[in-house]
Amino acid sequence: MPNPVVSKGSATWRGNLFQGSGTARLDTSGLGTFDVNWKARAEEAGGTTSPEELIAAAHATCYSMAFSNELDQNGTPPAQLDTSAEATFVAGEGITGIHLTVNAQIEGISEEDFQRIAEAAKVGCPVSQALTGTTITLTATLV
What we know:
Layout: E1 9-14, E2 21-26, E3 32-37, H1 38-42, H2 51-73, E4 80-90, E5 94-105, H3 111-124, H4 126-130, E6 136-142
Parallel strand pairs: 5-6
Antiparallel strand pairs: 1-2, 2-3, 4-5
Helix pairs in contact: 2-3
């Protein structure tokens, strides 16, 4: 059985929700500290990030990894996967949906198998599973 891996992130917030601000940190890797504030979350980014942007990046990455594995198990490993995720946030409602878009370069796969495997990867992706209760949609294009 694999050993569990714990990834750590943290945040510091100063002030109230609407005028305050903070920082989010990638503690495990130490690769980044990101400014956060309410305006970036509910209006426009303006050089700061939001929890939804961080979730979108994590989801795009996880989906790419899951899809790559599913394709490899099918005997059709990808040459390249370009994945993006859009997490939609509505103030007062929360995250209302996430849309994944993937453009894939894969040799020797039918469109039908490609779509079936793309959908299976969406369902099997650990981040998708963690976001159960959020509508997750997918546009998969074989290029």
